[in-house]
Amino acid sequence: MKGEAQNEGILERIFGLKDQRQKFLDLYWEGTFEDYLKIFEENPKIARNAFQRVYDMIMLYGIEKIDEGDDSIIKYKFFSDPFEDGKNAVFGLEKPLMTLVNALKSASHSYGTEKRIILLHGPVGSAKSTVAKLLKTGLELYSRSKEGVLYSFSWQDEKDPNVWHSCPMHEEPLKILPIESRKDYTKQITSKHQLEYRIEVEGNLCPFCRYYFNTYISKYNGDLTKMLRDKVKVRRILLSEKDRIGIGTFQPKDEKNQDSTELTGDINYRKIAEFGSDSDPRAFNFDGEFNIANRGVIEFIEILKLDVAFLYDLLTASQEHVIKPKKFSHTEIDEVIIGHTNEPEYRKLQSNDYMEAFRDRTLKIDIPYNLRLDNELKIYERDFNPKKIKSKHVAPHLIEIASMWAVLTRLEGPKKANITLLQKLKLYNGKSLPGITEEVVKELKKEAQREGMEGISPRYIQDKLSNALVKIEENGCINVFMLLNELESGLDHHSLVTSDEQKRSFKELLAEVKVEYENIVKNEVQRAICADEEAITRLFTNYVEHVKAYTTNRKIKNKLTGEDEEPDERLMRSIEEKMDIPDSRKDDFRRELMNYIGALAVEGKKFDYKSNERLQRALELKLFEDQKDTIKLSSLISGVVDDETQEKIDIVKTRLIKQYKYCDICATEILSFVASVFARGEAKK
Ligand SMILES: Nc1ncnc2c1ncn2[C@@H]1O[C@H](COP(=O)(O)OP(=O)(O)OP(=O)(O)O)[C@@H](O)[C@H]1O
Ligand SMILES: [Mg+2]
Ligand SMILES: [Zn+2]
Ligand SMILES: [Zn+2]
């Protein structure tokens, strides 16, 4: 007894909350046909067709306008992390997604695209499945929201009044009304509402429902009202792929094992005995993928691997919105058909005859790889971030370098001789480079039409990142060189990189990003070494003192000896050279600087070297030069480190860890690495 009471408490605690209970009741609403009509009259949108529903779902999340030169781009927020779980976002691809949404929009107005198969086409791993999955998952959630409610109905059993049979295709309840009166009625109701598109409930009932309709209507001598009251029950439906309601997926298997019943349903042999005939709709399972996906979306994976016989089914399904189950007449369907195929597959079939018919009835949307570094980065950051990888460290710039390489492999060589591929990448990423106008960037994009349809896929990068990650022991750190090796050695077994030439070019690009990486870390180490603000300020003050003496033709007092000396030309030049100020301009520069500092002083302000990035960088570099030897980075290579040096190195390391997010391991690694780079440089000198 006591246990029971406790159990009840638990259930109450979970489901007993008032709003929870109401939510639950709303989700599983059931009522009479008349109840349903009341709901419909208030909100005719519940009877939208699948295209209208999917389009509205996308629009519900809102849009964002991005200005990109001449063409303004609309970003549909639905595609960027719609369910706020960080898992489902599509990064970039604004233009193809615009094409997709426009197709849905025009289909929801019945402008013709509703008669097409939407075909996502692109290289392997370009997010085609991701986009399709988003639509499916989105629709599941949408059907649970108040904006996306929809309904279907059941028939009472002929013998047992307590048994109800749901329409196997979850059809819209209004479909029970005879076509003519249905048309008049919906027209009359919808005209009272402001709707963006026309809502029409088209077509006949499915064979299963037709059977019940015909049986009952004759039993009631044509009294539709009475039949609807007694024999029909309406209920809310929740679209769900798992429950096979409104969401379907079809994947081609080998030809012999597949027949059309998977798409349009099959005879239920057990029930033939009960109903006596194989053409009795009660002895048929209308559970093919097309049947169950009614009202929602059906996805065709690798659509071009489909057997030709299926393809024709598919074409009529999209063109005429009907399917033909075995033994039964044509049956209307209302669903968005979306397929995908990758580039190699598509090319293989391009010369094929039946492709002609197919191409004619599809709306092909190219889904290329990302060409914008920032977007590519986000794909990997989603899985390789400190929140997810707790016991291992991912070295700074690792993801950036991998993404950079991936994007580089996709870019076409710029035809302009003065732009490198890496510069092109940076331009595409929104960076401005001196002397290169927006016009030039536009030209670059224009001259490379197929860009993004070839190159390294995100999946390859993801795989290699995971490989690198598992190879590292707990509390270890994945460094960039290791990943670069992983990326390189993988190329030899990459099934999609077949030509030696391509392989060679990909490897060359790896070497290129390696150089880029070396520059980045060299820079960071330099900055960490001279991040000593006091020392920089001292250096700057010193410099200004000498410049002041120089411009006013005076001498300067040596602090140690107390003697008057000429301003130190070497000191001044060593800083100015780092700002690319030629000897011929030095007088002007020094005078301008003094005037500027003077003008500020008049206003009671002080000049801050940090306000001038070039000057700051020059000071840092000078300081680095002065300190490099005292820190003796080279001792890191020889392994002989005295205490004093170790202390200095530790300070630098701490800065790397604090300011640049290194861990102890990778900070040590890049310090040795940079030391060796400098050692090489010294040796060259
Ligand atoms: N633009 C992108 N935004 C977000 N993730 C992406 C993007 N491009 C690729 N990905 C990621 O890359 C992986 C492969 O994507 P997906 O499976 O959708 O590709 P696909 O185009 O269906 O590939 P295939 O042609 O091999 O079927 C997934 O992990 C996906 O999240
Ligand atoms: Mg796929
Ligand atoms: Zn039905
Ligand atoms: Zn690390």
Strand content: 5-15%
Rounded mean pLDDT score:
89
Alpha carbon gap, first and last residue: 90 Å
β-strand number: 19
Please give the largest β-sheet. 5 strands, parallel
Number of helices: 29
Oligomer: single chain
Query: What global shape is seen?
Result: elongated
Bound molecules: adenosine-5'-triphosphate, magnesium ion, zinc ion
The chain-level structural class is: alpha/beta
Unreliable residue runs: 1-5
Main sheet: strand order: 8-11-14-4-15
Summarize the structure.
The protein is α/β, with parallel strands linked by helices. The protein is built from 29 helices and 19 strands. Strand 2 and strand 3 (71-76) form a beta hairpin.
Tell me about this structure:
Among the domains are: 1-28, no CATH class; 373-492, no CATH class. It has 29 helices and 19 strands. A hairpin with a 2-residue loop joins strand 2 and strand 3. Helix 4 (50-60) packs across helix 6 (128-144), helix 17 (398-410) runs antiparallel to helix 22 (500-529) and helix 23 (533-551) crosses helix 25. Residues 393, 395, 477, 662-663, 665-666 line the site of one zinc ion.
